[in-house]
Structure formats: structure tokens, C-alpha cells
Design goal:
Layout lengths: L5 H23 L2 E6 L4 E6 L4 E6 L9 H30 L15
Antiparallel strand pairs: 1-2, 2-3
Helix pairs in contact: 1-2
Length: 110
């Protein structure tokens, strides 16, 4: 840690925080879509991991077997969340690009 310019380091941290905030804001406006049951259940989620839409085809509703519809909804929601998490990791990973050199400093969140 010799020859480290603390002012420069703090400036870099502030810049990265701003980039992270911007990336998170952008993620909230992006959506991913997943489906189950051959497309009978479709779920949309934002990059902020919020479910914003669930569509269920009429033919997916079987009053004699509600469990199958439940299973399709769960599968589609889980896949939408996985896709949204992947999107977030991709976007936020780019914003974290310059932080590798700071990880050893024991700063919270790095």
C-alpha cells in the first residue's frame, strides 16, 4: 500500500459508485421473459428482479389438475428470476471492472 494516493483512490471509488447506481437504474428498466409449459405460462421480470407480468393461456387452466398450472407458474417465475440475475451480473460486472485492485483493502462492499 505504499505510494498509494488516497485521494485518487477515493475518487475512483466514487466514480465506480456512480457507475453502479446508473447501471442499477438501467436494469430496473430492462425486462427478461421466460416461459413454461410450451409457452402456456409466460413471466416477465425486470433486471431489478421484480416480476412485472404473468400471462397464462386459457388452455393451461385445467380445473381437474390445478397443480400442473402451479408448477408451470413456479417454473416460469424461477427461470425469469435466473435470467434477470444473469442480466444484472452482466451489467453490474462491467461497472465493477475497476474494483479488483481495491478488494484487498477490506472496504465494505468490495
Amino acid at each position: 500500500m505504499k505510494n498509494m494516493d488516497v485521494g485518487k483512490m477515493l475518487q475512483q471509488v466514487q466514480q465506480m459508485q456512480a457507475e453502479m447506481a446508473k447501471a442499477q437504474e438501467e436494469l430496473a428498466n430492462e425486462t427478461v421473459e421466460a416461459s413454461a409449459g410450451g409457452g402456456m405460462v409466460t413471466v416477465k421480470a425486470t433486471g431489478a428482479l421484480e416480476i412485472v407480468e404473468v400471462k397464462i393461456a386459457p388452455e393451461a387452466i385445467d380445473p381437474d389438475d390445478p397443480e400442473i398450472l402451479s408448477d408451470m407458474v413456479v417454473a416460469a417465475v424461477n427461470e425469469a428470476i435466473r435470467s434477470a440475475q444473469s442480466l444484472a451480473e452482466t451489467r453490474l460486472g462491467g461497472a465493477m471492472g475497476g474494483m479488483e485492485g481495491l478488494k484487498g483493502l477490506g472496504l465494505p462492499g468490495l
